[in-house]
Amino acid sequence: MKANYINKIILAVLLFGLVSCDSELNFEPRQSIDATTALETAQDIESAVVGAYAIMGGGSLYGTNLNVVPELLASDTYFSWFGTFQSYRQIALKTMDANNAEASRTWINAYRAINVANTILANIDKISAGATKDRLTGEAYFIRGSMFFELVRLYGLPFSAGNTTTNLGVPINLIATTDDKLASSLGARKTVAEVYTQVIADLNQAVTLIPNSNPTRATKFSALAMLSRVYLQQGNYTAARAAADNVITNSGKSLTGTVGAPFLNKNSSESLFEIQQNDQNNAGTSNDGLATFYASLQGIGRADIRILASFRNLYEATDKRRSDLIYSAVGARAGSTRYHTGKWIAFGSNILVIRLSEMYLTRAECNLRLSLPFVGDSPTNDYNLVRNRAGATPALLVSSVQTILNERVLELAFEGSRIHDLKRVKVSTGTFPYDSPKLVLPIPRREIDANASLIQNPGYN
Amino acid sequence: MKKLLLSYFLMCFLMVTVLYAQNKTITGKVTSATDGAPLPGVSVSVKGNTSIGSQTDASGNFKLSVPSTAKTLVFRYIGFKEIELPVSTTVNVKLAEDLKALSEVVVVGYGTQNKQDLTGSVSRVTSKEFADQPISTFETALQGRAAGVFINSGSGKLGQGLTIRVRGISSISAGQDPLYVIDGQPVVSQALGSATEPDNPLASIAPEDIESIEILKDAAAASIYGARASNGVVLVTTKSGKAGKTKVNFTYFTGISNPTYRGDFLNSAEYRQLFTEAIKNSSLNGVGWNTDDAEDAWLQYGAGTDDWSKDYDTKWTDLSFQDGGISQYNISVNGGDAKTRFFISGGYNDQTGILIGNSFNRSNGRLNVDHSVSNKFKIGTNISIAKTKNNRVSSDNAFTNPLQLNAIPPIQRARLDDGELSDETLYYNNLIDLEKATAISSQLRSISNFNAKYNFSSDLSITGDLGFDITQLDEENYNGKETLDGAPTGLGFTRQVNSSSYNTNIYLSYLKSFGKHNIDLVGGNSFQTTTLKTGSSTGIGFPNDKFTKIASAAIVSGGSSTETGYSFLSYFARGNYKFNNKYIVGASGRIDGSSRFGKNNRYGFFPSVSAGWIISEENFIKSISKISFLKLRASYGLTGNSEIGNFPSLTLYSALPYADKAGIVPSQIGVDDLKWEKSKKLDFGLDFGFFNNRISGEFDYFNNQTEDLLLSFPLPAINGFTSIVRNVGKLENKGLEFTLTTNNLVGKFKWSTSFNISTYKNKILATDGSIINGGSRQLGRIAEGNAYGYFYGPKYAGVDPANGDALFFNEDGTTANDSDWDGYEQEVGDPNPEFYGGFGNTFSYKGFDLNIQSQFVYGNDLYNIAGFFQSVNGDYYDNQTRDQLNYWTPTNTITNIPQPRFLDGNGAFKSSRWVQDGSYFRVKSVVLGYKIPSNILSKLKVDNARVYISGQNLLTFTNYKGYDPEVNATYTGRVNLGHDFYTPPQARTITFGVNFGF
């Protein structure tokens, strides 16, 4: 046939193949969007704020570790750890090394949340001035301040150990990371005092900017309550009391009728800040999440944290916190004398971070520690408010700080405050003094490897 | 792109030419000079005009019409010497067997070459070598047979992906697997499933359909695959039809399988003895339980049952296993004439794993046809479709992994008094999963292509092909409410994956000989695009276990859909020039553009040069009759690695939900310059044959320097990102390969041996200071100056004879116990082998044949992570390996097992305590067959028949104390090689099979 004709066609096809497809090399990701278009509108920034809460709700932060790690560090006379995770076991035994997986992921994700907060603040001027801008700005500050606070009290020696201007806290990074150069920049650890200063500055901004009501998210009073915690941790009782009293007086919050309600119901009247969860989106159902570690119910929980009978006996027989909030294991490691907390029993429940009864106990403690007059109400009334709600015997007169501290242990058990309270009142846990380096998490090895300017905590290498 | 396809088809249709006249008919018969048997399938052609040809039929007869100008006929048959005879009306030929194995034709990228003329390094495994073996996926056929190809099956789980590394490990964070090209088309070989451990999409390819597998190892061979060739290229060629009488082949085999090793754990009496001791020595003695009261301790810290005082004695490890089995039916029909040839096959393979609940089956069909439209124009198609169904078992690191049953104390029972499975065990009794849970992964896959070739002249041709690779994966899991993962209300999960890839190749080939010059040129263009879509949903709250679909779930608790993809646009060329049959030079190159590369580096160029010198053609060697072949070759070139993820160069935000609100967060920090990894590959080779090629072999030295390694570079997390992908690292792999094939006896009793041994020395040269650690339980590490994945951690120093404390080495070389140890970590092993290889022997006598193939790995270390739990002197109630009974006591002070101290962690953390030598020698397969004599068969109208018995993994010699030294707990991540964590052993399989040909 006409060979020439065919040759021409083939040549044409070949050339077509050679030139036609260049545009086919552009593939756009479908599940992600390019950073340049990510934060353009108020709605985009609102989404980023939600994203930051989601990070805080993960297992590395409030979803598990910011609760479980402070409890494990103070497990003596409290509970036994039965879990198979080496990382948690090391924390329970105080034999952490710098590779401890929990120390690594909590550090990483706290800074991840901080970077989102920084990114929100860097882009906030894309929103015109007004209530929305203030609220989102304030929330970013709340998130950043809370994360620095959690970091400094886990990775630095306690504020109560003194030398706060020389003891090392954590690096402070206030710049949004937008490119690879910023992502690689190194930062040294700031002192404990410097970090606390930053925390207080951020939380004060949050208090100023966030409105009184902000459903399911941080409010002005969430920030005030967190601030109260910060001051208490510093032993600044005056400021802690003022913040706690402000929350009690102005937040409109009230103790729930039953001790279980704050945990069973989402966003109860007692809740000051809680992580929102549901069945789809939660910290975890098998390797992460509070119910995972605390619970032993049919099909729920690994039963890794078992309350010691002696601790259970600290509650009076009539105390609802004993009858309603402690149960015998019926799931994993079942047994009638194996006790577990009833605070964390469902994967999809919210995770309470701060609630009102803590503010009462803080106010009571500070009132007792400071000279008269009492602010708000008498320590006895505040104390009895908590006791009466639980069905425990009220006191005629509370005159000792220790009484309040004991009540704090009972009321706030398994809510992630135990080691922090021990440290601030300088009480040992087991054989470890409150300022033992063994009670301070290591700076993660991966972080030291990636950032030569970091100095490891004493006792780790 | 649609336009391109259209034009492509147009091209196929238009390539029609006229037939020409034929005017002379020749007939004849071809027989073997050795035994006089007729030879079917011998190619008969006219010299100088290869387009005129035919093949002999089953009786060795042929008939051929030739132009009157034809002078000489050429007879060619693989395994026999080529012969040329003058044209006459009747030509009867006796072909002599050819031991000159080096004359075989090997498949290379976009063409074929004579092995003799190769300047690159190519390993070849043909169907003959793995026939009759119950291999579950074709890659296992390469194990022990191809030098420089290291294969680790990872575990005895059916349907799971294997680790295949060609010439060491060429990447840290990009892909490490070779590129798979089936009949000219790069195919998807990465796991598509959502399970922690990878599935193997290549398991859908029936080994019976494969004619040969070539592995392109050096730059000369592989750089024509450019940015995808750094890890080597595996070319798979499927069988094609042969002209002649239609032949039907039926094969069937069936067999049983068992684990190679079942583990050695304590029985109840031993368990009680060890734990009574551990309870007494614990610091909790008298605190956590009544002093020295092991029964009380069990009540307090055990499973909450009274098992301590009962007399149960359960051998839990046996409960993890079942009797496995395998059966396969395959039928293939092959035939055609000078114009049209076809190969049709269909098969069914059914395997029951040795692990409870594990099974795999495959149904496959294939149609390969090629048709000569004219003497200039040929079209063909390869169409395959396969369906696989895999009942998967959990990841090694799951309580539901059947092998984790061995952690349950022997003093506990599997079933309660009512016959129901016990839910009172220390750890989840995952036998419940067997009854109440399913995890099925089904795959439907078609790899098909359409091809056309037009010969402009006898020298120049154009080939075009269009291939599709479409995979539909369907994962469906259901966990009843009684199961660990399904509690409390039942859990259903379903996921569909659609992977579709299409690829076009268009290339010109020019082959010319004039005088002493031979030229072979190929050049063309290729385009590939692949998209991957997934959709999944999860439901909880099922009425009962009879309802397993999400439609019956009370709550649809999760759902997702995703899409991703990539494309490659490439131009390639290769040229080889041979002078005087002695001197060969070659060059090849490819330009690859890909959507995966950063916008500043869209296209990469990958050239190679090579040279060969056939010394045996030189007069000074030609006179030495003992030397039949000798060739030196060398090559140098560049290849790339583009398995870097689809969008690594972009800075991205992704969605992150917060309860019922949608949030977004930065998810990736990108680099615009990001590009492929680059390997500079150097290879020196020597091919030899002595004594008429009765001894032949190859020797290779390679040195591969990989640069611009994409490292997921650890960032200081304080800026919000933990890693960034950059082209920063360098590593090298150097090694030697040696292959030797000998025909020891060639008479009636035949014996041939093949042996290969390979080494690779891997060294990480630069990582810009970054160090990658394998994790808190793992020892693997990547750091400058060390081998990939070398073991790094605390070094165990044995037991203090004075007090039974576990000791560890301090930095200054002294030793200390757990609490005083200074935390010093150091190199404690290397998972890379010093050498590995295979050794095979084939014997045949009359109708009998025996093939024994073994495989060995030497000098690698393994780390059994499960030692934490099962070989830790009774630190917790996990059942212990029997060696723990040799624990320290005041009277048994010289031992390596510390004093048992319940929950005190005496030597219980990660350390070299559980590092062991992983060397092994394994008799991989033995096939003993008998060919039923043709005089018996002819009465039955059967052409040939063979019966055989075959054994896989019959014997393993190793010092490794875990289940199986061929282990790789993939869930631990790629940094951790040679890690074992309740990883199931390989199966030992015995099969019986028959093959019939009609």
Main β-sheet description of chain A = 2 strands, antiparallel
Mean pLDDT of chain A: 92
User: Shape of chain B, please?
Assistant: globular
CATH architecture of chain A: Alpha Horseshoe
Main CATH class of one domain in chain B: Mainly Beta
- Portion of residues in beta strands of chain B equals over 45%
Largest interface: A-B, 104 and 103 residues
Number of domains of chain A: 1
- Low-confidence segments of chain A, given as residue ranges, are none
- Helices and strands of chain A: which structural class? mainly alpha
What would your notes on this structure say?
Chain B: Keywords: Cell outer membrane, Membrane, Signal, Transmembrane, Transmembrane beta strand, Transport. The complex is a heterodimer of chains A (461) and B (998). The mean pLDDT of chain A is 92. Chain A has helices at residues 3-20, 42-56, 65-72, 86-93, 101-123, 131-155, 180-184, 192-209, 220-234, 237-250, 261-264, 290-294, 309-312, 320-323, 356-369, 379-390, 401-411, 418-424, 445-450, and strands spanning 32-34, 79-81, 271-275, 305-307, 326-329, 335-341, 351-355. In chain A, the strands form 3 sheets. Chain A has a two-stranded antiparallel ribbon. Chain A is globular. The termini of chain A are far apart. Chain A is mainly alpha-helical. Chain A has one domain: Alpha Horseshoe (Serine Threonine Protein Phosphatase 5, Tetratricopeptide repeat). In chain B, the strands form 10 sheets. Chain B has a 22-stranded antiparallel β-barrel. Strand 1 of chain A pairs antiparallel with strand 30 of chain B, so a sheet runs across the interface.
